[in-house]
Amino acid sequence: MTNDHHDHAHEDGSPLSDIALRVRALEDLLVEKGVVDRAALDKIVEAYETSIGPRNGARVVARAWSDPDYKQQLLTDATAAIAALGYRGLQGENMVVVENTPATHNVIVCTLCSCYPWPVLGLPPVWYKSAPYRSRVVKDPRGVLLEFGVALPAETELRVWDSTAEIRYMVLPMRPATSVGKSEAELAALVTRDGMIGTALL
């Protein structure tokens, strides 16, 4: 786990950056002028947060489950392996993928703000950006995971990975035992955003 310096604005409790303030002012103006409907905007944001973005990561996970060579590449050089499937860009320049196993469970966080791998997970959920999650998951990861409904055996090692402005993490969840014989598309349908953060089991 690393706590490298972050070079961008903090969220939740910290003053907004100039850019964030401008975005908020522009959004308010567009809503006020009737150009944008705030409810529709919220639905678009929710779609990117829960389905469109995470679908990319789900395809990465499904490929890793289906192709041992790709899985090895993903765990060795995640940035290149993810880019090979066409997912690259801002917030995904330096990726590291960590694998969940019966002996080890990984969870990701960004303790200083909300660094997050947008190309594969979409927009970060509100709880990921919240101060309670960012502080508590480091101090009491087992307790926080229990609140998400994830009860792990006492012997399972828990590893918390702290994303930074330089590195973004993604969890490669364990493949469900019931998924034998499924196609890559069917496997991708089993993968959830929270599973790739480490706050859910599949």
**Overall pLDDT metric:** 85
Q: Summarize the biggest pleated sheet.
A: 2 strands, parallel
DSSP helical segment count = 10
Name the CATH architecture. Answer: Alpha-Beta Complex
Provide the low-confidence segments as ranges.
1-12
Shape call: globular
Looking at CATH, the homologous superfamily is Nitrile hydratase alpha /Thiocyanate hydrolase gamma
What structural class results from the helix and strand content?
mainly alpha
Strand line-up of the largest beta sheet: 1-4
Describe the structure.
- This protein is mainly α and about 200 residues long.
- It has a single domain (about 20-195), classed as Nitrile hydratase alpha /Thiocyanate hydrolase gamma (Nitrile Hydratase, Chain A, Alpha-Beta Complex), CATH 3.90.330.
- The protein contains ten helices and four strands.
- The strands form two sheets. It has a two-stranded parallel sheet with strand order 1-4. It has a two-stranded parallel ribbon with strand order 2-3.
- Helix 2 crosses helix 3 (about 70-75), helix 3 (about 70-75) packs across helix 4 (about 80-85) and helix 7 packs across helix 8.
- The longest helix has 29 residues, at about 40-65.
- The protein is globular.
- The relative contact order is 0.19.
